[in-house]
Amino acid sequence: MSFKTKVYNLMKSWCDELLKTQLDMPNEPLLDGALLCPGCAVVHGRCADMVLPLVLLYRDTGDEKYLTAAKKLIDWTEYNLLSEHKDYRNDLANRWKGTNIFTCLMLGETLHRFGDVLDAETFSKWDTIFRERAAAAIGFCETVGPHINYNAGAAAMFAFAYNYTGEQKFLEQAQKQEQFCREHFDKEGLFFGEGKPLDGTTAKGCHFIDMGYNLEESIPLLVLHALWMKDDEKIKYYTERAIDHLGFLLPDGATDNSWGTRQNKWTYWGSRTSDGMHEGFVYIAKDNPVIAKAVRRNIELLKRCTVDGRLYGGLMYHSAGEPACIHHAFDKVKSLAVLYLEMGDEFETCESAVLPREAEGVKAYQNGYLYTVTKGDFVATVNASDTHIYSCSETGGGAISMLWNKDYGAVMAATLNRFVTTEPMNMQIQRHVDEELCNTARIGRSDMDKTVELARDGYTITATSEQNGFEIEYDFTDDAVKINILSDKDTEYVLPIVSQSGDKVELRENEVVFKDMLSVSFNSEYTIDPADEKRHFHPVGGFQYKHLTFSISADKPLNIEIKINK
């Protein structure tokens, strides 16, 4: 089966499953046409974002149910989410109107691609809606000052609107928003502004960066802006920035957002409410095999996270007994549809390309407070940045925030020390979790220590805290990761290991073996929690964990080695 067919089948399976949740209540306009999420028991806004793939399926199959569903989604959105300013609110319980940009772009693209498929009445109606919503978006970013992904979205939407309508006002806005975005790239090529102030730096000189939003939304949208503006210089610039950001794509297609400012929305394959990398990256993949491979690997991961047509927020939601929130699929399915429509043979011949995280090496980001490491079959991120934007604290403290292995997958995946649902209507509440525990490896409360310094010597990264009196050395070799810890006081080290329900865990005196594969050996007394077959589950990343806790005596080294038994 070709990759193109696989993309189409995944897109169709999501749409078919989503339509099972669509409400048919013609006498209740507050509900008629909406999608009732079986994972959250609510009606999410933005469900109309799936209209483009529905019209595509109507064109390909001739089945009226797809077009009827699309019309009902637009009607529901118009009735329930339209503001007095003629733009859309995010949902019934939220006055936020930034997402109008993305819904507007979706509708415009649908008209552009499938205008000849729609009946005259529907085309005229949707065309009027698009023009009104696009005009209403003018001035939003300047008035509200949102996170920078909205500026990137506006740059793309206004560029499209100019091409579609020919109106000069949209051209001016497109150029203005792109220029603003162009000013927000750091020296490593990463896009910053996912925190306030957008151009601010922290005490450590770090920027507010979120890889989930960047890889899945902002950079692809800026690529689209460049394409619709037919600007070769911009296409080259944003293609280079796309490759820079692939430094945080894991070899299995996952986005390493273990350190991002909006990590609470991390879903391993991306971010909870973003559109997906495929829509923008498909256009620049033809001449860039590394981008084609990145898109392909991400699609393969999305397929792994799909069960019975429903996209889960990570690899272990289903095994944890947590349902799938439909927000994930109706956000991403448009991106899959555009990928299907625009892709060529480059996705069949890209496997020999080397992703940045597949190549051995160490690279510093965030003013030297964030390192990525690839050595042997291990891929890691070490984070001591201080970019905390919520009342909770993102991952930090000099921890390994991500450890991934070619055979095992994610070994360590850090989470916030206190999970906060900053967007209650967009973020899934867990059914079987009373408290989301911190899953960041840490000595004492080092995950909250913003004073930690990092030093590098080859493939060894050392995290030091004078404030809390400890030093942690991470030594990466071809076949193992060694963690050596020294503290000036009695304390403990918590090491959460990713472990799925049902997987074998063997306990020995100085070693714990996971799945007869991953060995964690050590020279200290330890406890394992939970001690039975249960696992800790966390929605950030969507993983289940076993926590190993080691006793540390003052000035006595704790030595831990993580390796794969082959």
Q: Please, could you describe this protein's structure?
A:
The chain is globular and about 75 Å long. It has 566 residues and is of the alpha+beta class. An 8-stranded antiparallel sheet has the order 9-10-11-12-20-16-15-14, with no helix packed on it. The longest helix is centred in the N-terminal third of the chain and has 18 residues. The chain has 2 domains: 345 residues, Glycosyltransferase (Alpha/alpha barrel), CATH 1.50.10.10; 205 residues, Beta-galactosidase, Chain A, domain 5 (Distorted Sandwich). The two termini are 32 Å apart. The mean pLDDT is 95. It is 32% helix and 19% strand. β6 and β7 form a beta hairpin.
Walk me through the topology.
Elements: H1 3-19, H2 51-61, H3 64-81, H4 100-114, H5 120-136, H6 140-144, H7 149-165, H8 168-182, H9 211-228, H10 232-245, H11 278-281, H12 289-304, E1 306-307, E2 310-311, H13 327-342, E3 361-365, E4 370-375, E5 378-383, E6 399-405, E7 409-413, E8 442-443, E9 453-457, E10 460-465, E11 470-476, E12 480-487, E13 491-498, E14 505-507, E15 511-514, E16 518-522, E17 526-529, E18 536-538, E19 543-552, E20 558-564
Antiparallel strand pairs: 1-2, 3-4, 4-5, 5-6, 6-7, 8-13, 9-10, 10-11, 11-12, 12-20, 13-19, 14-15, 15-16, 16-20, 17-19, 18-19
